[in-house]
Design a protein that fits this description.
The structure holds two protein chains of two kinds.
Chain A: E1 3-12, E2 15-25, E3 30-34, H1 41-49, E4 56-61, E5 64-65, H2 71-77, E6 79-81, H3 94-101, H4 110-114, H5 118-138, H6 153-165, E7 171-175, H7 183-198, E8 202-206, H8 210-216, E9 219-224, E10 227-232, H9 234-239, H10 241-268
Parallel strand pairs in A: 3-8, 3-9, 6-7, 7-8
Antiparallel strand pairs in A: 1-2, 1-4, 4-5, 9-10
Helix pairs in contact in A: 3-6, 5-6
Chain B: H1 5-13, H2 15-35, H3 44-60, H4 66-72, H5 75-88, H6 93-113, E1 123-124, H7 132-150, H8 153-163, H9 165-170, H10 175-201, E2 203-204, H11 211-224, H12 230-245, H13 250-267
Antiparallel strand pairs in B: 1-2
Helix pairs in contact in B: 2-7, 2-10, 2-11, 2-12, 3-4, 3-5, 3-6, 3-10, 5-10, 11-12, 11-13
Classes of the chains: A alpha/beta, B mainly alpha.
Bound molecules: adenosine-5'-triphosphate (ATP) and magnesium ion.
Chain lengths: 272, 289
């Protein structure tokens, strides 16, 4: 198994964001994690990548227990991720962002750096070449010199992918990569994710766009209220009553809330 | 080395001011190193005091030559940087600021109350061994090193963690380790500045390294900027020179630092030299300025 979790749980005051989740991810392919808003998908990503520590449970990555490892160590082991709310280094250039993603692959020490030794120059040159290749893959090579914060929204999402890819991760985690993209961009993104998977990187993605998820994924895990409620192929997920219920339930609850709010508004409104 | 007579005169007349420019430049770099990776430490004056006192004692009591005193004067500042840094760096940023202010006050009362450190009178008669060229050579060396380090994976890591420490950690950057390394580097720079200052003024006292100097050092970087290592030096030189030009208006001089800081924060959010340093080595970026 590439990635395994065992009873993974994260509690916050008054709620269990991730509740006793067992995952087993085989190497290769594209896996999706879906669930209604607030189901715990991002929290699970944060637990896997070490940005949030679990209340209970373990995470194993490529056979090693990484439960106690901080985020930067997990990246060095071969995990990379993007963020649902884009977190680029906005004032740094596009190229510098991608180079920063390669940090764990660079090892030249302080002295060779200050003395500009050959080893330093060779390593930096190789890193720049790889960063440019990653930018080319996502189609941003022409924007290399621009400040990352100046890119349009869709391009910023692509840049996050390039920044994650440059470390050549075994596992790439994408948190809602299509959010805010128009349909044409979403189609291109699907092709990009497929290409990434073909190079041998395992992809785990969270996405609300069901067309995108169903067309792309080899397997899907469904979360609801922090719990894993279903696991299977896209066809199985589509046919599973629990999944439909979870989504319908969430939608119904939202509608009830809305109409309730409307009623309250009428009740509290100015009296005639 | 023989200098033209006019230059010699000039150096002689303004020697103290010229030395202050160099020493304050080093202090500005000490401040820059921590701010550039997103930390707020107010310990630079305290580190400076440790370098000054330990350096002065090594010269006066142990009789060591200056070329040994200078590196040795970094030991105490670095030790205290580690003592403060290791426990606080895992906590949020304000703890470091508070802990470093505390360090300054604790040390001040130590200088005041320990007889061997001269008490309220401080230490007098320190041999004047810090030469002008030494001060400026060390400043140039530090500045060059910071530019070269800034244009490498280290500089990228520093800027990344200043912008977003969480995302930086996800990129594989050991944020806590970098913070500690920056604090230690800052202690070295400030310690050297303190040692140089002690060996050019012949007198040091407990009140030179308290809260007010700490804020002055912070204002060097606030005014100059932290986008590149030249900026804080520009800020330091501005704040060192301006009061000299206003010698005849002593009342104004007192309020000047405060006024400048307020104006800088309001109108120069990126500082006097607001440009941002490229983070790739020369030439490699291929037009990516
Ligand atoms: N730091 C936190 N403190 C308290 N509660 C939190 C925290 N982070 C997440 N939560 C809660 O945990 C639950 C799961 O949140 P999470 O962001 O993981 O959901 P999600 O499935 O990613 O939702 P979305 O689809 O809207 O992105 C939510 O109820 C959220 O409010
Ligand atoms: Mg989410």
């Amino acid at each position: 198994m590439l990635l395994e979790t065992n009873g993974l749980t994260r509690r916050y005051a008054g709620l269990v964001a991730v509740d006793n989740v067992d995952l087993a991810l085989k190497p290769g392919g594209i896996h999706a994690l879906i669930g209604p808003n607030g189901a715990g998908k991002t929290t699970l990503f944060n637990l896997l990548t070490g940005l949030v520590m679990p209340s209970e449970g373990q995470v194993r990555f490529q056979g090693t227990d990484i439960t106690a490892l901080p985020a930067h160590r997990r990246t060095a082991l071969g995990m990379a991720r993007t963020f649902q709310n884009i977190r680029l280094f906005r004032s740094m250039s596009v190229l510098e962002n991608v180079l920063t993603g390669a940090h764990s692959k660079l090892s030249t020490g302080l002295l060779p750096t200050v003395l500009r030794l050959k080893s330093f120059r060779a390593e930096e040159r190789a890193a720049v070449a790889q960063a440019r290749a990653a930018l080319e893959l996502v189609g941003l090579e022409a924007q290399a010199a621009l400040p990352a914060g100046s890119l349009p929204y869709g391009d910023q999402r692509l840049l996050e992918i390039a920044r994650a890819l440059v470390s050549r991760p075994a596992l790439l985690l994408l948190d809602e990569p299509a959010a805010g993209m128009n349909p044409a961009e979403t189609v291109q993104l699907a092709a990009l994710v497929r290409r990434i998977a073909q190079t041998g990187t395992t992809v785990l993605l969270v996405e609300h766009d069901m067309g995108f998820v169903m067309g792309l994924s080899d397997s899907i895990t469904v979360l609801n209220f922090g719990r894993k409620i279903f696991e299977g192929t896209p066809a199985e997920v589509r046919a599973a009553p629990v999944v439909v219920e979870a989504y319908l339930g969430a939608r119904l609850a939202a509608r009830l809330r809305a109409s309730h709010a409307a009623t309250l508004e009428v009740a509290d409104g100015p009296r005639a | 080395m023989t200098l033209p007579a006019w230059l010699d005169d000039l150096l002689w007349t303004y020697q103290t001011l010229i030395h202050s420019l160099g020493i304050n430049g080093l202090l500005a770099l000490a401040m820059y190193v921590v701010l550039a990776c997103g930390q707020l430490s107010l310990g630079q004056a305290a580190f400076m005091g440790l370098g000054a006192y330990s350096g002065a004692l090594l010269t006066m009591k142990a009789g060591l030559p200056f070329y040994l005193v200078l590196p040795a004067s970094c030991v105490a500042p670095v030790a205290f940087a580690l003592i403060i840094g290791v426990p606080t760096l895992r906590l949020s940023g304000v703890y470091l600021a508070i802990a470093t202010i505390g360090l300054g006050e604790v040390l001040r009362s130590a200088y005041l109350n320990i007889d061997a450190l001269g008490g309220a009178l401080g230490l007098n008669g320190i041999p004047e061994r810090a030469e002008t060229w030494m001060i400026f050579a060390l400043l140039a060396l530090s500045l060059t090193a910071l530019v070269l380090v800034g244009r490498s994976r280290f500089g990228r890591a520093m800027e990344a963690m200043r912008e977003d420490p969480t995302a930086a950690a996800a990129m594989g950057i050991d944020v806590a380790r970098y913070h500690l390394a920056a604090l230690v580097t800052s202690a070295v720079l400030a310690g050297i500045a303190g040692c140089l200052a002690a060996h050019q003024s012949s007198f040091i006292g407990p009140n030179e390294y308290g809260f007010e100097p700490a804020v002055t050092i912070l204002s060097f970087a606030l005014l100059g900027g932290i986008g590149n290592p030249f900026a804080p030096i520009a800020g330091a030189w501005f704040l060192t020179l301006l009061p000299e030009l206003m010698r005849d208006l002593p009342e104004l001089r007192l309020a000047l630092n405060g006024i400048i800081i307020v104006l800088a924060v309001l109108f120069l959010p990126h500082g006097l030299l607001g440009w941002r340093m490229r983070r790739t080595p020369e030439k490699l970026a291929g037009g990516a300025r």
